[in-house]
Amino acid sequence: MSKKELALGIDIGGTTTTFGFVDHDGNIIVESQFLTHAEDHVTTYLPRLYDAIDELMTQLEEDTSVVGIGIGAPNANYFRGTVENPPNLKWGGVINLVELMEKKYKIPAVITNDANAAALGELKFGAARNMKNFILITLGTGLGSGIVVNGDIVYGHSGFAGEMGHLIVNPEGRICGDGRRGCLEAYVSVTGIRRTVSKLLADYLVSSELREVSQAELTGERITQAALKGDKIALEAFEYTGQILGQKLADTVLITSPEAIILFGGLANAKDLIFEPTLRHMEHTLFGPFKGTVKLMMSELQSQNAAVLGASGLIWHELDKRAKSGEQV
Amino acid sequence: MSKKELALGIDIGGTTTTFGFVDHDGNIIVESQFLTHAEDHVTTYLPRLYDAIDELMTQLEEDTSVVGIGIGAPNANYFRGTVENPPNLKWGGVINLVELMEKKYKIPAVITNDANAAALGELKFGAARNMKNFILITLGTGLGSGIVVNGDIVYGHSGFAGEMGHLIVNPEGRICGDGRRGCLEAYVSVTGIRRTVSKLLADYLVSSELREVSQAELTGERITQAALKGDKIALEAFEYTGQILGQKLADTVLITSPEAIILFGGLANAKDLIFEPTLRHMEHTLFGPFKGTVKLMMSELQSQNAAVLGASGLIWHELDKRAKSGEQV
């Protein structure tokens, strides 16, 4: 009998690197993590990564075979196999991680950003199984997106397609992390709703427990808890966030007409508080022929496993594609 | 020797139906047209269409073979093969034109809207030859768009993807033909720039030859002529139109990251008057990684042939796809 095939999924975050071996059905066989130490040069980081992988590999049973490596990383370019000057990793310039990993492990490797990897995780193992057209949106510190059209991630000509966090809500709006004004993620993300709370506390006099919390201490969970207790500022912050997200989703639906939009991460965990206003405003804004055609769904990947499932989904998807097109892998 | 293969391309407009036989290289062998008579029921229209096709077919040489039919029509659904309640054709409900044509002529037929057909015309025979990712925008009475990702039109889950004319510029903006407010085509189209001229004539006192023309008489050409003579209102109307188009294109680039955006139709013929401000505002608005990655191009299809080339491009593209995937046609 042939060996059981596994993929290695690696998610490189600014704080933590998480990695694990995953089978074709999305079962994580073993998983581990270590601190990324974002200030390290890549020549210091890589030996630590290799050692950690080698150590975890000793836990695999003998009748298994690792057939590919999927990597989720910031500023990753799928076409070039590179990580390119991410602001939150001091690796030094443009690093061809795919080439390095393929040389080291002699198996195919693929890289993309974490939102695209999450979308492929949903496609392979989560809420988007059997879908051909959907959008995955991560609502964390920022807003990331992975867009699937005709069963594949849209990379576009540049390799960087699917950056909905930088859609312009208002050209004279809030300053964004990239220096521009009015980007969607300056409104719709954990950071964004925190800024919205500050604005509402400035604009209104209604009493709110959030007046007792500094902006720096304000988490998505804290705002959610206040909203669940009926705090008017917290409720209005979710309404405003859902309005802006819903309106921009309505624009995006005109472009790719997805079957579903899947929300993942920090803010998505507020469930109905964010889903209800988002869906209402999206439907209200949608152009007639698209009304009622799009499901708004919760991610079906467990938060703690999503990064590794996404990265392994990326390589499983790639291997499936190559097998289908008859390409040698 | 095998017979020379031809496709039949049919473009059904509210005023005119244009059709012709086109070879695989985009040469129109013969072409004809007749008045659509939009007020006719489809049961009256179809016999006229069949007669016109049959008559034109007698002009084909004997060593030719017609292998497929491509149809561009309003409110067409590629998946269902239907024309669905177009506001400008009184055909009566949902008509499965693909089924009717395949039954009549015993060859494969495909249908889509005119902007998607135009995009496939550019892909097969025009400015987008060899491109995998681009957007075609038609600037006529309204604004239509066809979006190509990974070498194929994006139809999306609903079959209606690529409706950029209804992107929202401003939720409190101009009333659009569909009753909503602030749609892109209420600003960026021949109709849109005409409305912009009226607004500028209201807002400013500067002298302008356009004060002598009624809104109903104001054509894209008339505004272009005035702008070329330095008329300040006409120039400002192009600047404003380019600003709004450029800003919305910058949003769209974040979604699909095209190699090029191709402009076609009435307003596009104003050339630099519309291209220069559009490109300038798009580049100004674009998120950093996308700056300089997108070409803004003029359509390479001649206006008078574009409709038939687009419709035949649709069926040639479909036949190529089916041959590639090994499907029986």
Helices and strands, with pairings:
The structure is a homodimer of 329-residue chains.
Chain A: E1 4-12, E2 16-22, E3 28-35, H1 42-57, E4 64-72, E5 76-77, E6 82-84, E7 94-95, H2 97-105, E8 109-112, H3 114-125, E9 134-139, E10 143-149, E11 152-153, H4 190-203, H5 220-228, H6 232-256, E12 260-264, H7 272-285, E13 295-298, H8 303-324
Parallel strand pairs in A: 1-4, 4-8, 9-12, 12-13
Antiparallel strand pairs in A: 1-2, 2-3, 5-6, 6-7, 9-10, 10-11
Helix pairs in contact in A: 3-8, 4-6, 5-6, 6-7
Features:
homodimer, 329 residues, alpha/beta, five-stranded mixed sheet, globular
Structure commentary:
- The structure is a homodimer of 329-residue chains.
- Chain A is an alpha/beta fold.
- Chain A has helices at 42-57, 97-105, 114-125, 190-203, 220-228, 232-256, 272-285, 303-324; strands spanning 4-12, 16-22, 28-35, 64-72, 76-77, 82-84, 94-95, 109-112, 134-139, 143-149, 152-153, 260-264, 295-298.
- In chain A, helix 4 (190-203) crosses helix 6 (232-256) and helix 6 packs across helix 7.
- The two termini of chain A are 21 Å apart.
- Chain A binds chain B through residues 132-133, 147, 149-150, 152, 154-164, 166-168, 171, 178, 180, 183, 247, 250-252, 254-259, 285, 287-290, 293-294, and chain B through 132-133, 147, 149-150, 152, 154-164, 166-168, 171, 178, 180, 183, 247, 250-252, 254-259, 285, 287-290, 293-294.
Shape of chain A: globular
Which two chains touch over the largest interface?
Answer: A-B, 41 and 41 residues
Strands of chain A, total number: 13
User: Can you list the strand order of the major beta sheet of chain A?
Assistant: 3-2-1-4-8
Structural class of chain A: alpha/beta
Strand residue percentage of chain A:
15-25%
The biggest sheet of chain A amounts to: 5 strands, mixed
The quaternary state of the protein chains shown equals homodimer
User: Would you tell me the overall average pLDDT of chain A?
Assistant: 94
How many helices of chain A does DSSP assign?
Answer: 8
Low-confidence stretches of chain A: none
Helical content of chain A stands at: 25-40%
Element order of chain A: H for helix, E for strand: EEEHEEEEHEHEEEHHHEHEH
Euclidean distance between termini CA atoms of chain A = 21 Å
From the alpha carbons, calculate the radius of gyration of chain A and give it in angstroms: 21 Å
